[in-house]
Amino acid sequence: MAAAEAALADAQAAAEEALSEAAAAQAEAAAAQAEADEAREAAAAAQAEAEAAQAEADEARAEAAAAAAAAAEAEAAAAAVDPITLEFWSWNNEGAYPVVHEQAEERFEAAFPHVDVVRTYTPFADYMTNLRAAIAAGEPPDVAQVPWTGEYTDLVNGGAIASLAGDFTTGFPEFFPPIASIASVNGVPFAIPLDVNSLQIAYNKDIFAELGLEVPRSSDALKAVAAALDEAGYFGVAVGTNDGWAAADLFFAQLAYTDPTNTLIVQADAGAATWDDPQFLAAAENLEDLIANGVFAPGANSMVSFVGALELFVAQQAAMFYPVGNFITGGIAAQVEDSFEWGLFPFPSPDGGEGFATGGVAEMFSIPADAANVDMGIEFMRWLTDAESEASLVSNDFIPSWGIELPDDVSNLYRDLIAAQATVRNRTIYTTPVYTEVINGAQGLLGGTISAADMIEAMAGAG
Q1: Tens digits of per-residue pLDDT, 17-35?
Q2: What's the CA gap between 449 and 441, in Å, rounded?
Q3: Which end of the chain has fewer CB atoms < 10 Å from its terminal CB, N or C?
Q4: Which residues, 6+ apart, have CB-to-CB distance to 183 below 8 Å?
Q5: Which of 225, 227, 231, 230 is nearest to 212 (CA)?
Q6: pLDDT tens figures, 81-132
Q7: Sequence-distant (≥ 6) Cβ neighbours of residue 443 within 8 angstroms
Q8: Cis peptide bond N-terminal to 323, omega within 30
């Protein structure tokens, strides 16, 4: 009996051990199954990633192939387009104008790889002679700077300039109405005005402070300043009237005060007033008086404005320099650097009243009618007046010919130039023979060869 019970107990223990081993084996099998399932999922994920990577690679190859095809197509198209040399003429290589021109040129050439813009700068004294000769020969530039005087209207009336009537409002900014009027002849635009100016006298603040001088607000005060400067060994106003336009501007600076309505030139151009009007004579007499009292540095007629005359100012031999507009302020700053402080004031009035700068269009460009690339020339002018060129103009102290939002970081000098624009006086005569006599007359007054009355008589005879 006892033996049977012992056997039963052994059998029961063996059964329980077998069951335990079976359970352990089952658990191991389940774990193995789980590992297998996880491995299969990982393999599936890896397969999916591989397929996605393959798809991305296929897409990248397709994009690369498309880009290569587009590049080849563009290269073929460029090769099929005849290269163009776009001739751009200007006389303004002083100051920062070349910077503005070059920046527009670089952007334009990047957009039109088949176009090569070639800039040619010629001194103003020779510029119009060269331009008229090129037009007469049938080989004018594609884009030509034109003056704001009667020489421009003469070219237009002679059929030498292409009308911009269909292009003036397409892709160009909205120019100030008075400036758009200057660029037009009989209401038709023939030029694109780039920027405007206001002409004033630059003065050396350090020299003025050294001698205890104040900015003159009347003609008598200007003469007194010139006398004090002479006594101290300095010249007064350096001006280079070998450039005829600078000579004329001396006259216009006085006319700003003898013509209080600022309408006399326009009336005389239209035949509604005569060129020997007493107001013209008074302006010439005022200039004659300033010359006689030593206001201007000697040798004006032998000096070019932005070479000899400006050099006297930069070298601090002359305490003042005229005429200064935004077209040259950057050039003055670059040459003066930190050697002295300088500022601007308008030519003072005879009686000490409000001072006025003279002004108008600075740079203005036309497309010659016989130019080889009229359409491309117009397109280049759009780039020269676009938003990026506007920023370039402002950063270099130029005043665009259209309304702008003034940046916060502009200099006080620029703000002064903008403020002067509000009251600028006319400096534009469109009757070319008369304008020539204004130049000759002012040069004659400076040289002491004629009188104010002689100058006005010559103007009347030319008109």
Answers
A1: 766 776 676 777 677 677 7
A2: 9
A3: N
A4: 175, 189, 190, 191, 192, 193, 361, 364
A5: 225
A6: 789 999 999 999 887 899 999 999 999 999 999 999 999 999 988 999 999 9
A7: 241, 244, 247, 301
A8: yes
Does residue 351 sit in the same domain as residue 310?
yes
Beta bridge partners of 320: 203, 237
410 in Cβ contact with 394 (< 8 Å): yes
Q: Read off the CATH number of the domain in which 146 is found.
A: 3.40.190.10
| C-beta neighbour count of 387 within 10 angstroms | 9
Determine, yes or no, domain membership for 261.
Answer: yes
pLDDT-derived band of residue 41, with 50, 70 and 90 as boundaries? confident
Helices 278-292 + 452-462 axis angle, to 10: 140
Q: How far is CA 189 from CA 37, 62, 155, 306, in A?
A: 83, 51, 13, 31
Q: What is the pTM of this model?
A: 0.73
- For residues 393 and 445, membership in a common domain is answered with no
Distance CA 347, CA 327 (A): 18
| Domain around 372 | 84-193+363-397
